[in-house]
Amino acid sequence: MDGPIDLRSDTVSRPSPRMRQAMASAEVGDDWYGDDPTVNRLQDRAAELTGKDAAIYLPTGTMCTQVALHAFVRSGHLVACEASAHAGRTEASSAAVLSGIAFRHMIAESRGLLTAGQVEAALRPDPYDVSVVDLVTVENTHQVGGGTVMSVAQLREIGAVCAAAGVPLYLDGARIFNASVAAGSPVRAYADPVAALMFCLSKGLGAPIGSVLAGDAEFIREARRLKVLFGGAWRQAGITAAAGLVALEDGPARLAEDHANARALAGGIAELLPGSVDPAAIETNIVFVDVSGTTRSAPEWRDRLGAEGVLVTMIGCRIRMLTHVDIGADDVEAALAAWRRAAKD
Ligand SMILES: Cc1ncc(COP(=O)(O)O)c(C=O)c1O
After folding, report:
1. Are strands 5-6 and 196-200 parallel, antiparallel or unpaired?
2. C or N: which end of the chain has fewer Cβ atoms within 10 Å?
3. How far apart are CA 289 and CA 123, in angstroms?
4. CA distance linking residue 162 with residue 73, whole number of Å
5. C-beta of residue 29 within 8 angstroms of C-beta of residue 36
């Protein structure tokens, strides 16, 4: 790629020539009135891929989740989620401000992956506890967990526990296509045990903008109302939806390449800084490098790598890197050379 090697996120990729062409020639209407044909086609395609009744196209994954939380959870009630999940950590203030919602955190034993037993315990009724859990959310792949993949079987077990407790299950599937490719399970199988899910077109699938929320007909009817309430009725959105349709066609087939590149990146760093990352644990496109055992702090690594032309982010003592459509195997080699230069005194 031109310029720095940008590994800060899989959201930084630029639209492909095919996407730009589709956007330039997109047929559009006014999405407030529901008559943008390209948006409608994207929504129909998303419903088909997920096996849900219907879907709506929204600007961000955050808006999808906030609409879902508002629909499922009463003000003052709780959402149970893994402690480092995007919804309950990065978006907790949105949920508090927009919907009066708080979270019951469950701490995963391994890399963000919840068990059915943990969910069962979080939903167990306590006659002396006045807090009520209205929704359980699961994140797949789990971002802070390191792009970890929950299997369909594990999600089904959690779904069964939720169904027994009468509590709906929501899937933050921002990167569900990465999970689907890594596990070899269709997105539809992941969507089956949950009441609703969202996925992002603007991450690994490579679209410039947009996410999709899918669920049953009644839920999506309410979500359409909430979309307007939250200021998300976005008129000639067919322009970007056209790129979203291309992302759904072209994106999934090349995600395995991102996963292989992430593993190669982790492998090179493990050679340079033994113990900082386990390449065998890289399942998808996210690499965390624990630099606490090195002579530099995480901010020092980030700044040195930046000076060497490699952009990364950090969480605590871990450097975070994501591979994406604009990162090729040659960029991984160049990034590893930058790590080696940054490691020198
Ligand atoms: C797991 C997860 N969920 C939700 C989101 C929110 O998506 P958006 O940035 O489109 O609001 C992100 C963004 O990085 C994410 O990583």
Report:
1. unpaired
2. C
3. 34
4. 15
5. yes
Percent of the chain with pLDDT over 90: 96
Q: Kindly state if the Cβ of 139 falls inside 6 Å of ligand 1.
A: yes
- CB–CB of 324/256 below 8 Å? no
- As a whole number of angstroms, the distance between CA 181 and CA 121 comes to 31
pLDDT at 1: 55
Token pair in block for residue 117:
């037993």
Whether the Cβ atoms of residue 166 and residue 106 lie closer than 8 Å to each other? no
DSSP designation for 31? G
Condensed to tens digits (0 to 9), the pLDDT of residues 97-130 reads: 999 999 999 999 889 999 999 999 999 987 788 8
Fill in the amino acid letter for 168: P
Q: Is 143 in the pocket of ligand 1 (CB under 6 A)?
A: yes
Verify whether ligand 1 is closer than 6 Å to residue 178 (CB atom).
no
Look at residue 126 in the predicted model and tell me its pLDDT. Answer: 79
